[in-house]
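User: Sequence in, structure out. Go.
Assistant: Echoing your sequence, followed by the structure tokens.
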Amino acid sequence: MIELDLGVAPEFADLTLVNVDGHRGVTRGGTVAPLAGRVQVGGPHGSAITEARVAADEGLRRLIAEGSDVGYYHVWLGVTFVTHTGPRLDSAQLRLLLAAVPAAPAPFALSVRPAADGVAQKIGRKVTVGSKLTLPSVGEADVDVETSRDYERTRLFVRGLGLGGSTPGWEFTRAPGKLLEGTCLLELIVQAGQHARLSVSGTVTAQTAGALPFHFRGELPSPLAFSGDI
């Protein structure tokens, strides 16, 4: 196991989500107002997992050195759901789109955290990130994340999506009787071509609670692009 310094913690920015229900979004007073100040996103950020960064672990260094046409990339971001007056958020999804130059081999999510099978996670509004990475000899990857948070009394249910594909993401649902609120750190390990230029963009969608739910959508404001040579 080797410790990797992320270097950059997510800095959160408000994301405006617009209604996507078409004619259902039209009321006597006009269209449904966008959701503003309800979702904040920090990142994505990313870095290549290079031999130099894992030099203290000979087995891991050798694994990376021997993968002449394969590279590993660490991507992380944060999402915060904010308590606000107005319609209550019932669920949300964050979907990423992975692309690379050259396009082959196509990038895919080798690991996502929180996990693909779903977890109930305590949440808070302050996140300090440290990370450790292990790449076993079989070539799989996982991330052990140590976080320091100011915990709140709610629990956020998170389920990873798209493991093994180019559109990984997460689904967030509120606990029964609770609001969808708080902060969650999201991470993935991407496998792509060695020295590829990886790009990560994404979309957040949300659904309000109620007898007539509305659906909203917004693009991540700061898509990521970085080179495997870094």
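User: And one key feature?
Assistant: Residues 2-227 form one domain.
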